[in-house]
Design goal:
- A hairpin with a 2-residue loop joins strand 7 and strand 8 (120-124).
- The chain is elongated.
- Helix 16 packs across helix 17.
- The protein has 24 helices and twelve strands.
- The strands form three sheets. Strands 1-10-9-2-3-6-5-4 form an eight-stranded mixed β-sheet. A two-stranded antiparallel ribbon has the order 7-8. Strands 11-12 form a two-stranded parallel ribbon.
- The protein folds into two domains: 4-165, Beta Polymerase, domain 2 (2-Layer Sandwich); 252-424 and 432-454, cca-adding enzyme, domain 2 (Orthogonal Bundle).
- By secondary structure, it is of the alpha+beta class.
- The structure holds adenosine-5'-triphosphate (ATP) and magnesium ion (MG).
- Residues 46-47, 59, 62, 137-138, 142-143, 181, 183-184, 187, 228 line the site of adenosine-5'-triphosphate.
């Protein structure tokens, strides 16, 4: 790396920073002290140091040491060695895992333990000094080391100044670092969003130009990153940042295209609303699912395709199936959405037209569908941008609250079929239908709305 950065660390003594041992996980402290007492160097490093310096509560505590994985293994009974590309020690304390990594170098020593393919890092297991370890990290604010021996913070890359200035700066030449690992572009966007930092121009400028490099990133890794970006509590801001830095087209190409084609801006508004809603759920510690998230992220693409197939005269049920399959198939080439999430995502979509149905059997079938709740939440989100859906939202909101015999009673032919307010909201549509078809049981939502029996 840059030789200028090799002039020794800046040492920030205990009294000049805010990290106190009280904020560090007791298990991480145990590991740090055990390593130190065995004569090894031991540092807290990465996101934990960054977050503690910012006054936040780290999710996990990573440790860097000059002990080899085997030496770490010998020190801890509760330790597992993992990884091939990066050999790491996991020290287990019940549900808490403390990750202990041996200092690694980012330079090829000819041992063949570090491999580049088209400039991309595919294997990286060369041990090195703490300086080596610092400069192979991605952003300067992620390369700060908290030393257990004197409680100081060691800074080899001017990370402390960047942290104070709330700035994400890549270590080394930005373009080379992005080529080495394109996921760093996403990390830049995600971490800047989460921390409320600026991405320094040196690191931001090349992102739009290099966005396509993300196509080479393993789709499984992009799935993990997407979950961190969208389900970490800052999903809406994350999405806007992806757009701003030209990364959306690489992550969600069909959604990007559908949004470009939607002159009304409604699809984008609905998507942002879904993400804001997800952020609120995360804040309230309510559950969030990748199925619902991707149902929202891919909805513009799915709708666009559904429309195209419908315009071509395809039967609605078949068009749904085709559109859902096609959009999913294309998307998983980029982001490996596992089937256990794509299946419920399809169900959320497939249930949308069924909210217009009012036949008794269909109403009860929909209410007892395992995906009813998610599909209804999705309908509510859509209704904000599509006011025509509001009567259905009102009707189903009330229907859910009724005991089943009361609901059944209302759905009897000839009786008021629904909760009162929804009935009022439905009136104009109903009148029209009475004069027209009047039949029930058709597959098409429009035909089925009017009648009470099935
Ligand atoms: P988060 O709060 O999301 O966990 P983090 O910075 O801790 O953020 P991790 O994925 O936990 O992210 O990584 C831990 C550390 O490993 C980082 O702080 C950074 O020093 C280093 N690191 C992670 N990913 C990369 C990468 N792609 N290239 C270089 N260094 C990386
Ligand atoms: Mg981390």
């Amino acid at each position: 790396m840059d030789p200028v950065q090799r002039s020794g660390p800046t040492i920030i003594p205990r009294e000049a920073h805010c990290i106190s041992r009280k904020q560090i996980s007791p298990n991480a402290l145990r590991v740090l002290y055990r390593l130190k007492d065995a004569g090894f160097a031991a540092y807290l490093v990465g996101g934990a140091v960054r977050d503690l310096l910012l006054g936040g509560a780290p999710k996990d505590f990573d440790i860097a040491t000059d002990a080899t994985p085997d030496q770490v293994h010998k020190l801890f009974r509760n330790c597992r060695l993992i990884g091939r590309r990066f050999r790491l020690a996991h020290v287990m304390f019940g549900p808490e895992i403390i990750e202990v990594a041996t200092f690694r170098a980012n330079s090829d020593d000819g041992s063949g333990d570090r491999e580049l393919e088209d400039g991309r890092l595919v294997r990286d297991n060369v041990y090195g000094s703490i300086e080596d370890d610092a400069v192979r990290r991605d952003f300067t604010v992620n390369a700060l080391y908290y030393a257990i021996e004197d409680f100081s913070v060691r800074d080899y890359v001017d990370g402390f100044a960047d942290l104070t200035a709330r700035r994400m700066r890549l270590i080394g030449d930005p373009e080379a670092r992005y080529r080495e690992d394109p996921v760093r572009m996403l990390r830049a966007v995600r971490l800047a969003t989460k921390l409320g930092f600026e991405i320094d121009a040196s690191a931001a400028d090349s992102i739009p130009r290099l966005a396509d490099l993300l196509l080479q990133a393993p789709p499984a890794r992009l799935f993990d990153e997407a979950l961190k970006l969208f389900l970490g509590g800052h999903g809406e801001a994350g999405f806007l940042a992806l757009e701003r830095h030209g990364l959306l087209v690489a992550m969600l190409p069909e959604t990007h295209e559908a949004l470009q084609n939607d002159a009304t801006g409604r699809s984008r508004a609905m998507l942002l609303r879904a993400l804001a809603n997800t952020d609120a759920r995360v804040r309230e510690e309510r559950p969030v699912t990748p199925a619902f998230l991707f149902a929202a992220l891919l909805w513009p693409a799915y709708r666009h395709e559904l429309q195209r197939l419908g315009d071509a005269g395809m039967d609605p049920a078949l068009a749904h199936q085709r559109a859902a399959d096609r959009v999913t198939l294309h998307q998983i080439e980029r982001i490996a959405l596992p089937r256990r999430f794509s299946t419920p995502m399809h169900e959320i979509w497939a249930l949308q037209p069924r909210f217009t149905l009012r036949q008794r059997k269909r109403v009860f079938r929909l209410l007892s569908h395992p995906r009813f709740r998610a599909a209804f939440d999705f309908l509510e989100l859509r209704a904000v941008e599509e006011p025509g859906l509001e009567p259905d939202v009102v009707w189903w909101r009330e229907a859910q609250g009724l005991p089943s015999d009361a609901l059944a009673d209302r759905l009897q032919p000839g009786k008021a079929r629904a909760p009162e307010s929804a009935e009022r909201a439905k009136k104009p549509r109903r009148r029209r239908r009475r004069g027209g078809r009047g039949g029930a049981g058709g597959e098409s939502p429009a035909e089925a709305v009017g009648d009470g029996n099935d």
